[in-house]
Each structure stands twice: as C-alpha cells, then as structure tokens.
Amino acid sequence: MKEKTSEKILSLLKFEGALTAKILASELGLTTMGVRQHLQALEDDGDIRFEDKKAVRGRPTRYWSLTTQSNSHFSDRHEELTVQLIDSVKVIFGDEGLEQLIAHREQASFLLYSDRLASKPDLLGKLEALAELRSEEGYMATVVVDDKAVYWLMENHCPICAAASKCLNFCRSELNLFQTLLAPYATVEREEHIVEGARRCAYKVTALETE
C-alpha cells in the first residue's frame, strides 16, 4: 500500500525532528502550498504543532514537530498489556523475578544481535547491522557518522516506551547490551533519552584506539 503524504510527513518529523514546510516540500517533491495543506490537517488532528523561531533576517521561520499524540501512528507493542504483565510479574515473583525477566531478554537479544554483527568487519558495519535489527523491532534506528572515531546510534521511536517508563531497568539493560556487544571496538554512552522527555534516544559510540 502506497504511503500517504501525511504519513510521509510524520515519518520525516520522527526521523529529522522539527522541519519547515519548505524543507518538507523539498524532501517530498511537492509544492510548499501543498505541504502546508497537509500540515494544517495534521495540526487540526493534534498530531503536530509549530513553533515560530526568530530568523537572522525577515519574518520568523515556522518549524513543525510531532506531538505526543502522534505516537499512535507508530508501533506501540500493546502498551496497556505490557504494563499489566510487568505489574503481574512483580506481584507474583517480586522485583527479583522482574530482574530475571529483563536479564533473560537481554541475553536472548545478545545472542541474536551478536550473530548478525559477527560477519561485519568494522565498527561502522556492526553499527549499521545493529540499527537494521533495531528498526526491525520498531525503534526506527539510524547511524550518523560524526567523524572517523565517533558515531551516533539514533533511535527515533521506542516501541517499549510504556514498559521502559514503568521500569527503567529495561533502558539500563539495553544500554548494557550495546556496551557488551561493542566492548572490543568502542565505548557506548546514552546522551538523549526518550523516557526523560527527549525526542529520541541517542547513543554516542566512540571507537577505541584498537579499531
């Protein structure tokens, strides 16, 4: 099924952050007037909002960004059921049981990820493979090359946000997973965090001198 223009706009704003109508028009191959009509409809639906930022010269520039409501357009992994299951695990098995569940998930992910990354000869290749895996799981992940020694793994959506908000150890586990996977090649630090109100989760990956 062909993606609608409004869906493309939402995807661009999810990946890129706040954008102007002019930039969106250029990305989509449409007229600015045509894009503005779609932006107005999305604003009316409560999926996007705008902010007018002062320009160096002339009138302020209008930037469009997503609202929290727009999350309904992206994968949510059945948020309500997830939270209920976490509560049930804590009631039946206690905090220790929940920790065992998180550890099991981390170990299973490690086996899957390490198998996919094993054939990649360098750090960038491994990061691109990791981003592909994470995107398959709904994280809308991309890799940005800062310089030859610094990379960024960007996750523009969190399909387990409800679980992560309920139990931050899910986030701790994922950071630990990345650090373990890339330990021979790089250090990994989380610089932006969706659960803390950021637009995305951003992981700074710094190559070790041996890379």
From the N-terminal CA to the C-terminal CA, the straight-line distance is 43 Å
Compute the number of helices: 7
**Unreliable stretches, pLDDT < 50, 5 or more residues?**
none
- Strand composition percent: 15-25%
Average pLDDT over all residues: 89
Please write the string of helix (H) and strand (E) elements.
HHHEEHHEEHHEE
For the biggest β-sheet, the strand order reads 3-4-6-5
Q: What is the helix content?
A: 40-55%
Biggest pleated sheet? 4 strands, antiparallel
Instruction: Give the helix/strand class.
Output: alpha+beta
Overall shape: globular
Number of strands: 6
Cα-atom radius of gyration = 20 Å
Task: Explain the overall architecture.
The chain is an alpha+beta fold and 211 residues long. The chain has helices at 5-16, 21-28, 32-44, 79-117, 123-136, 161-166, 169-182, and strands at residues 48-53, 61-66, 141-147, 150-155, 186-192, 201-207. The model has no long low-confidence stretch (mean pLDDT 89). The strands form two sheets. It has a four-stranded antiparallel beta sheet, covered by helices on one side. The chain has a two-stranded antiparallel ribbon with strand order 1-2. The chain is built from seven helices and six strands. The longest helix is centred in the middle third of the chain and has 39 residues, at 79-117. Helix 2 (21-28) packs across helix 3 (32-44) and helix 4 runs parallel beside helix 7. A hairpin with an 8-residue loop joins strand 5 (186-192) and strand 6.
